[in-house]
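Researcher: Go.
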Amino acid sequence: MGKVRHASVTKSNERNTVSSLSRKTAAWAAGAALAVGGGTAGIVIAAQGGGQPATGGTAVAQAAAVRPAPLDLVSVSPVSLSQSAGAQAVNGAGTIVVTYNQPIPATAPLPQLSPATTGTWRRSGDVAIFTPTKGYAAGTHVTVTVAGLGYSRNRSESSSFKTAGYSTLRLQEILAQLGYLPLTWTPAADATAPGTSAAAQLSAAYTPPAGTFQWEPGYPALLRSFWSQGVANTVDRGAVIGFEADHGLPIDGLAGTTVWQALLTAAARDQRDAHGYSYAIASKGSPERLAIWHDGRKVFSSLANTGIPAAPTVDGTFPVYEKLPFQIMSGTNPDGSHYADPVEWVSYFNGGDAVHYFDRGSYGYPQSLGCVELPHYAAKRAYPYLPYGTLVTVTA
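Model: Structure:
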């Protein structure tokens, strides 16, 4: 009988326990649902037959803890200038957008840029946006490192891009604005000129504003044949040499990184060419002559000597790259003898060929070893009209 009474008590206690547990489980489940936003994900209540426990078991509520999804990187999106080039043609002055898989926690570190540049990051929902103060120069490899990923917060991922080259069209626009070309440039009515902002000037170097070029009147038609809008050309090279000379830069006629930095600064400050634009033609017709146009007017014409058949003056168009008021010019004559002659008002334009004074009994036919020789009074007068970068065309 003792065993029966024990069994009866046990069953009664079991019923009370199940009933109590069911009420507690229901209450806990309701609270858990509110805690996760009104849903019941992760909560399982096993029951059957109108709330009665299943055969061989009890109605037990099982709750799986809701673990938030780990922070993860979705994309890094700099502004690409070319769909075909992708991340190899990026506007270095554009914003950088890092997109995550969820809103960024306040505790998550902001992305890092290498090389570093000045600017500001801001969080906006699931993205972090970097706005540079100025930006990156052309051809810069940039790495964006995103840390704080995963559950442990110590995982990071990196993404890289390369900035594009600067626009030749924008080079021409700046050179025209500053007076280094025989053309003017006017921005389109709906275009925004970069103005004095360094960041805007850099951005325009990648994506130039729309506008129109207009030739200055008064120059020979031959000069126009050397120009091509948006394409590197001889007129550009001469203008770059003129700019390099004015700004104390090495003279090579190439718009490299250093030249571009100086150009963008000059454009923002409106530092214009103070020499005016010149163009010269050395004609090997009979009689030989040198003519110079300056700021759209023909300002000089004189008899000249060019090279003899054994050392001719090469035909073509070349920019003045070196100027000396006086020099002892030395070299080797065609017969093998050496010379060392004093010359004045020297403007080199092609290798060892220069416009300069040299004492001759007469002028107007081939007598030099490749240079364009002038009488003394003419050479002195021509010298200031042949500033660095002046194009000299030698023609038959």
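Model: The radius of gyration is 40 Å.
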